């Protein structure tokens, strides 16, 4: 389960050492961690990272299809989590040390910056290859972060981007050696910790009004 | 006139061997072809291409100005055609073997991918140079496909992009030798034929809600 | 104070030889100059430039905080000026010969093209570093001009871009030697003077409906 730690001005959220699936317990834990970061005061920033092969392998589709009655509530909560992260009032950096797939990949995009491992691990939106449509809010979030041609390629072809490819496509800001992923993310976060505060959260919310509306409308008729 | 053919999983729409002007008969024929592709089942994709010097030379302005009474109905139909193509539930590839101008260039942008001939032929939006404003839906479509600086340059300066320049600007995904244009487009299409289906169409519609609304509003007071 | 001059088909707006702060008198003078360019007829284009170390050093925050009662009216006028420039019916080129900070940097983005001095001078949005949120309309304008990753970096980290860096990030279209800034801008402007006219203004307004709405809503409850 995700665990929040603090190293000087940088909160580090360990997403787990397994597949780190975006399921109910994981969402609850990450949401609580984001709330703690939000409510802290003074200079601070956030790095999220996993341990081992996966950053996050996305939704637990088997469980979702076995529990149809939870699906709506869960979908609302996932979208709410991504909205909260997108406009968190601190600089956020995803240290993508392993695979990031589907909702895990989109979760990484909700951060301000992404650092990937260069030599192994894929960033991928497998939905098109699995015959699944993107929810509106998730589509809007992907498109708000990536250049039009990259959003199109990633969303329509389910291309798997290795670290260097993700850097070239500006999906990742940096692709570095395995042992430098976390350190690079910490450096970026620490460099901008002094910018934390309500003004930063307000600016982020004003940059992405359409994305936030789409993420928050998922529970309504418009979603 | 446009003619639809099928090669294994790939539909090939031949746009014609002349200037392939976007006029009433051409729009009717292309629209019928898109409907046939939509209604087919199973793995499939679409390649459009012309023969000879032109992919499509755009609107027939002489005819339009001679038949003012048709203009509104025609404008609605062209916008509807572009909206249908933009969210067609199969992967679409424009094999731009010759000039693509004005509405012909925008038609190519409504495809998911574009392959251009590298050594001859221009992609160009001549409207600004001719003193014509872009309709809202067409402006939105161009901007949804291109990086901000490229949309700005293409729309405001009427620059003519050769194939290599179009590739560098990411207007085209690939610029290749004349005899490889069609084959490259067929390869891309075939590689993604298995992704055809309602989910893909839904994702495309969710990626471009604003563009689709602007294209479909052309017949109303808002347009 | 800003002074408008004309060299053949190109209007040159001299923004001043000091810090060229975006204050009441400066806004009044620039607005009057834009109106004169709008109302002129025939082929024409606009170049804006400063003299000395600054293109424009942005808002005069000391004065604003000393005159709270003027702030709302002034904010409306600045946003209106940027909206007017964004859809001016002539091609506009910012010859950024010195520093462009904050509102001065955003003012440069409201032009169709930007030429920067390569070796000295920074383009920077210092708001995040000063704990100030961006107004909605200003955020929308920055995002309409820059690639998503550049808008994010510029707005959230307050990075100072030198000319060559700004060119690489496509904030500037060209970075050239000091003595070539003005001449390069004049060349670009003159090359497109023939495109001036209502159609060009209409196209610009149709390209940026959301930005214009956000800029113009600043005086209302929605802003």
Automatic annotation (TrEMBL), chains A, B, C:
Source species, domain of life: Bacteria
GO molecular function: delta(3)-delta(2)-enoyl-CoA isomerase activity
A Pfam family that the UniProt record links to this protein: ECH_1
A GO BP annotation: fatty acid beta-oxidation
SUPFAM superfamilies: ClpP/crotonase (SSF52096)
The name this protein goes by in its record: Enoyl-CoA hydratase
Organism: Streptomyces corchorusii
């Amino acid at each position: 389960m995700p665990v929040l730690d603090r190293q000087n001005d940088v909160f580090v959220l360990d997403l787990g050492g397994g597949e780190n699936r975006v399921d109910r317990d994981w969402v609850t834990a990450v949401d609580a961690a984001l709330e703690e970061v939000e409510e802290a005061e003074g200079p601070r920033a956030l790095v999220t990272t996993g341990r081992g092969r996966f950053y996050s392998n996305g939704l637990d589709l088997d469980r979702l299809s076995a529990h149809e009655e939870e699906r709506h509530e869960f979908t609302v909560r996932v979208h709410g989590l991504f909205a909260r992260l997108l406009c968190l009032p601190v600089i956020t950096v995803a240290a993508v040390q392993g695979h990031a797939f589907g909702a895990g990949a989109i979760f990484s995009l909700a951060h301000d910056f992404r650092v990937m491992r260069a030599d192994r691990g894929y960033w991928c939106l497998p939905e098109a290859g699995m015959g699944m449509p993107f929810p509106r809010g998730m589509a809007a979030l992907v498109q708000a972060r990536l250049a039009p041609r990259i959003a199109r390629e990633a969303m329509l072809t389910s291309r798997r981007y290795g670290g260097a490819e993700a850097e070239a496509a500006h999906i990742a800001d940096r692709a570095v050696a395995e042992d430098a992923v976390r350190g690079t993310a910490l450096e970026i976060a620490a460099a901008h910790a002094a910018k934390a505060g309500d003004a930063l959260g307000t600016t982020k919310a004003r940059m992405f009004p359409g994305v936030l509306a789409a993420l928050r409308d998922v529970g309504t008729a418009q979603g």
